[in-house]
Amino acid sequence: MYWENELETLNRIDLEKLQVKRLKQTIQSAMNSQYYKDLYRQLGLSADSVNSVGDLQKLPFTNKQNLRDNFPYGFLGLPQRDLIRLHSTSGTTGNPTVIFHNRHDIDSWANLMARSLYCAGIRDTDVFQNICGYGLFTGGLGFQYGIERLGCLSIPAGAGNSPRQIKLMRDYGTTVAHAIPSYLSRLYEVFQEEGLDPRKDTKLRTFVIGAEPHTEEQRRRIEEMFGVKAYNSFGLTEMNGPGVAFECTFQNGLHIWEDSYLVEIINPDTLEPVADGEIGELVMTTLDRQAMPLIRYRTRDVTTLVSEQCACGRTLRRIRRIGRRSDDMFIIRGVNVFPSQVETALLRVEGTLPHYQIILTREVGLDQMEVQVEVTPEVFSDEIRKLETLQQQLGASIENVLGIRVKVTLVGPRSLARSEGKAKRVTDLRNV
Ligand code: ADP
Ligand code: ZN
User: Fold this and answer.
1) What pLDDT is stored for residue 90 in this prediction?
2) Rounded to whole angstroms, how far apart are CA atoms 234 and 2?
3) 339 confidence band (pLDDT: 50, 70, 90)
4) Which of 28, 2, 9, 7 is CA-nearest to residue 18?
5) Which of 43, 88, 186, 222 lies 20 to 30 Å (CA to CA) from residue 289?
6) Strands 241-247 and 254-256, sheet pairing
7) Ligand 1 close to Cβ of residue 322 (< 6 A)
8) CATH for 1-327?
9) What does the pLDDT look like over 142-170, one tens digit per residue?
10) How far apart (Å, rounded) are the C-alpha atoms in residues 41 and 113?
11) Ligand 1: distance of its center to the CA of 234 in Å?
């Protein structure tokens, strides 16, 4: 029924036993690294310090800056000859974040990916097109190994070149595709340009979408445009990449693979755990990684832990959709704003496309926020009065969500820049 019947339905007591055993092993391997060896010796900590999951709180947090400061080998728990691969994030601001893997790590990651895909109803009869950059980015090879482990026919398509993606889909009868959500809106436009309807002209039935925050509304639009079910996939390079948490067919939160990751949700200000079901920062510990174990890593991603059992029967807990990171927030006129809130407000109004851009400026000392949003071709050819009404509706919808007035500019279809990578929604011109 599941990819791993026993592990996915463990009762809490047995699960915690397994977690404590693996946590002790993790601390032991971590203490082979320069970073954890120095830190834990100084604090008098060792594998013996933990005898329950709650004991985790005795251990210090690890953050991105620690990884950067000890770049590249400071967190390595194994000699270099045991390593077989590395992945890294782009590192536009300072040292990149690099994660090393030995054979065991790559193998268990492939297994977690296969489990994730199975959980979303994907089977070995599927034809799986991975529309994702191969290389240092984890979404390419991470998915590739999982797709093969599950036994689908894989199409390692790579990112971009939409006409080619569409041709691959039609030539080989692709049933499942993985891509970032902002790209799929772009891909739909190219289908239209070619006079094709993905609902009729492909065999697509499932999408796996992730790697960037997106709203429930955006998911539903993608599902409608393509006639598919779209499942949310969450991961981060520090925890391998994809395959950390995944939606099951009930699409009601993402199951965290708790046999391989310990999860905590903390208040980012007090660093204390939040009460059950409250929102906070996700903190994760690897339980099954040998080359580069990470303990209490602060992800900066904001979510809630769901403890009720899921209708699918898996006992592994779920997290709610990640709507934001604690660090993509901006403050405008004293109000904390997340791009996802603007998106929610825009998509509540008919006639817009999920392409928008937020521009922040400062005029005479006062912060101004402009939202440029693309309208559908139908709306764009309408008379000016209708456009003005739409503009007002959008302004009111944003004001309703954020509590502030912002300027809304309607732009024609396809006039905003498209990115092949993750969408960049905010341009902040206030400090230049
Ligand atoms: P980078 O920091 O370069 O984007 P990653 O590729 O490791 O590095 O991206 C991981 C981050 O992407 C996560 O910490 C999270 O903020 C975001 N992310 C990944 N998957 C999702 C998802 N399904 N929903 C929302 N955000 C996601
Ligand atoms: Zn479930």
Assistant:
1) 63
2) 19
3) confident
4) 7
5) 43
6) antiparallel
7) yes
8) 3.40.50.12780
9) 999 999 999 999 999 999 899 999 999 99
10) 35
11) 7
CATH class of the domain at 332-428? alpha beta
Q: Is 343 in the pocket of ligand 1 (CB under 6 A)?
A: no
Cα–Cα–Cα angle for 339, 345, 346, nearest 5°? 90
Higher pLDDT, 404 or 173: 173
Are 161 and 179 in contact by the 8 Å Cβ rule? The answer is no
Instruction: Count CB neighbours of 277 within 10 A.
Output: 12
- Asked if residues 413 and 192 have their Cβ atoms less than 8 Å apart, the reply is no
Amino acid at position 204, single letter:
L
Q: What is the pTM of this model?
A: 0.84
CB-CB contact of 120 with 152 (8 Å)? no
The 10s digit of each residue's pLDDT in 390-403 is 999 999 999 998 88
What residue spans define the domains of the chain? 1-327, 332-428
Are 160 and 173 in contact, with CB atoms under 8 Å apart? Answer: no
pLDDT digits (tens, 9 = 90+) for 122-143: 999 999 999 999 999 999 999 9
Would the CB of 213 count as within 6 Å of ligand 1? yes
Query: What's the CA-to-centroid distance between 405 and ligand 2, angstroms?
Result: 40
Cα distance between residue 125 and residue 122, in whole Å:
8
CB of 166 within 6 A of ligand 1: the answer is no
